[in-house]
Design goal:
- The complex is a heterodimer of chains A (about 325) and B (about 270).
- Chain A has about 325 residues and is α/β, with parallel strands linked by helices.
- In chain A, about 30% of the residues lie in helices and about 20% in strands.
- Chain A is globular and about 60 Å long.
- Chain B has one domain.
- Chain B is elongated.
- The chains are: A alpha/beta (about 325), B mainly alpha (about 270).
- At the A-B interface, helix 2 and helix 3 of A face helix 4 of B.
- The complex binds adenosine-5'-triphosphate (ATP) and magnesium ion.
């Protein structure tokens, strides 16, 4: 693993700066080595300013698995205190991207910063410490199959806090009821539907009140009504956590990132949208700016249209 | 061009070497995190110990009696009868059963029964991203999963060696009885040749077999990839690698033991 350590460059993310292509000036970033010319023609690399600092930042990150290049010069940020969406066609590397943030995968080159600290350069003990800031819902729930739902959700509390069993029960049951699993506490993961496992993973991700919450497709496998309700729940939980953080005077406001394919929930829930394609950001910015984008790829993707630059291949 | 061909031809070898290297690293990390506090793996250790015990006692009993009776028992007996020297079967059992067969049968049963269960279990957890989830929740999978399995398998394999040995010798007793011979000479030559070095050598050897089984099987499980099919592949490879590693290690261990304890090479009447 070779990690080109890139020093954090806060001035590049001046909130007052006007929307401008990344890399500065008028020159577009060069396409990744070996990419056909027309693969990046719709990547305007425009980043509409969010007015916030980024809590998680990818700096020119490359990652391949064997011959498959997944991240190909990804430069992306998650603005503090916002609910960000990471949108992109299936198989572009959204899940891979999430795993880089928590140090489960390391970039081949480039850097990933969390609160300004480089994740690939962390010592193991620092990494374990840093992960406590995160709540993560895996794409398939990733519940522990040897434990029932209650113990799954209680696991982070038992590991990282000195709370009494009674306090733990209170928190766990509140989270389980929130996602409609109050009656399923004794059930084991293999006795649940995919959607139920998702919701349980959702509860587990939130139980420690983390600074940064990453949801990998929280809505896949849910029916439309539950998807809508889940979107509302995400907003509600986020609002609550922001208020709490402000009251406690925390250094960082809670930041959520949601990977989704559901354009409706993206429209309803997102404060900020990153659109990822072919290992790079096509365009990113606050939701209104993105929904009004002129970019044909963004328009197609946010409208869920079959006509446009994106096709089956 | 030549470079590319050479690279391709040796790619599998490099893969094997890299894997072997990673297994050595895993062994090191396991030992370090086993001795470094906190020792929160006690419950899992007990559970794994009982699990291996429950899975293995019956297959091992059947395998050792049958094998002890058949291979060194019947076959060697048929051979010794030619010389009218069936009383030497006991002495032969020290060489055969204590030093070689009992440890082997022990290791093979443990690898085949408990080792594969470990690989399948950890592999499934890897595929379901449970291991990733553990790490993200700040729990080191080596400490919480590999260490208890490592210690449990060393303990169980070491203990089961004595068990295998007893039932293996029982197979020899059966073979003697089947040949209508008295047991006195069997035990006489057995105890003339048996030394405490034989016994502890055998137990130490199998304890280390247990370590090998645990490391290989945990490694293969934790690095499984490619869905359910990948888990199947991992289990298969774990068994093959374990057996090869045990054969190789057994050779080295026996050489070293015989070289350092020359008395073992003398056969006593
Ligand atoms: N550990 C890995 N080893 C090898 N290849 C991998 C690994 N993880 C991901 N990939 C590959 O990287 C690519 C991107 O995967 P990823 O799961 O990030 O896609 P995604 O954007 O999350 O797609 P989806 O929306 O379908 O979940 C895929 O082609 C996948 O095969
Ligand atoms: Mg994904």
């Amino acid at each position: 693993m070779s990690v080109a350590s890139t020093a954090p460059q806060p001035e590049r993310h001046d909130p007052e700066a006007a929307a401008a292509p990344l890399g500065g000036g008028s020159s577009r970033p060069v396409p990744p080595p070996g990419a056909p010319d027309d693969h990046y023609e719709f990547h305007s690399y425009t980043v509409h300013p969010s007015g916030r600092r980024n809590v998680v930042e990818f700096v020119d990150t490359y990652k391949s698995f064997g011959p498959n290049q997944i991240l190909r010069g990804l430069t992306m940020g998650l603005p503090e205190g916002m609910v960000s969406m990471i949108l992109g066609p299936s198989g572009t590397g959204k899940s891979v991207c999430i795993k880089h943030m928590v140090g489960l995968l390391y970039p081949d080159s480039g850097d990933v910063l969390v609160h300004g600290e480089s994740v690939p350069n962390m010592t193991e003990s620092r990494l374990f410490e840093m992960r406590k800031k995160f709540g993560l819902l895996f794409q398939d729930g990733a519940l522990f199959s040897s434990m029932n739902l209650y113990d799954n959700v209680a696991f982070p509390l038992r590991h990282h806090t000195n709370k009494s069993e009674q306090e733990i029960e209170e928190i766990v049951m509140r989270r389980l009821k929130e996602v409609g699993l109050g009656n399923a506490r004794e059930r084991f993961p293999n006795e649940l539907s995919g959607g139920m496992r998702k919701r349980a993973g959702f509860a587990r991700a939130l139980v420690l009140g983390p600074d940064i919450v990453l949801f990998d497709e929280p809505d896949s496998g849910l029916d439309p009504v539950r998807t809508a309700l889940l979107g509302e729940l995400i907003l509600e939980v986020h609002r609550e956590m922001v208020e709490e953080a402000k009251a406690e005077g925390k250094e960082f406001l809670p930041t959520f990132a949601v990977v989704t394919h559901d354009i409706m929930s993206a429209r309803r829930v997102a404060d900020y949208i990153n659109v990822l394609w072919r290992g790079r950001i096509v365009e990113a910015g606050p939701a209104e700016a993105m929904l009004n984008s002129e970019n044909p790829f963004i328009r197609q993707f946010l409208a869920g249209d079959s006509q446009g630059p994106l096709s089956m291949d | 061009m030549i470079r590319a061909t050479v690279d391709r031809a040796f790619a599998p070898t490099r893969g094997v070497l890299a894997e072997a290297g990673e297994m050595v690293i895993l062994t090191g990390r396991t030992i370090v995190s086993a001795v470094r506090p906190p020792y929160a793996y006690g419950a899992e250790l007990a559970a794994q110990f009982m699990f291996a015990l429950r899975l293995c006692w019956l297959p091992l009993l059947i395998a050792t009696v049958a094998f002890g009776y058949e291979a060194p028992g019947l076959q060697a007996a048929n051979f010794l009868v030619l010389f009218g020297a069936l009383d030497r079967l006991g002495g032969f059992f020290v060489l055969a059963s204590i030093r070689e067969f009992a440890p082997f049968v022990d290791a093979i049963v443990l690898a085949g029964v408990a080792g594969t269960a470990i690989t399948a279990d950890l592999g499934a957890r890897r595929i379901r991203e449970e291991l990733d989830a553990l790490e993200v929740l700040g729990v080191d999978p080596v400490k919480s999963l590999v260490v208890p399995r490592f210690l449990a398998l060393m303990l169980v394999t070491g203990l089961f060696d004595i068990y295998a040995l007893v039932f293996g010798v029982f197979g020899g007793v059966l073979a003697t009885l089947v040949n209508n011979e008295p047991l006195g000479p069997f035990w006489a030559t057995f105890f003339n040749n048996a030394t405490t070095t034989d016994l502890w050598g055998s137990v130490v050897k199998t304890t280390l077999f247990g370590a090998i089984i645990a490391v290989v099987c945990c490694y293969k499980g934790m690095t499984a990839s490619g869905g359910a099919e990948g888990v199947g592949r991992a289990v298969n490879q774990a068994v093959v690698i374990t057996f090869l590693a045990i054969f190789a290690f057994n050779y080295v261990f026996t050489q070293v033991l015989l070289a350092t304890h020359p008395a073992l090479t003398t056969i006593v009447k």
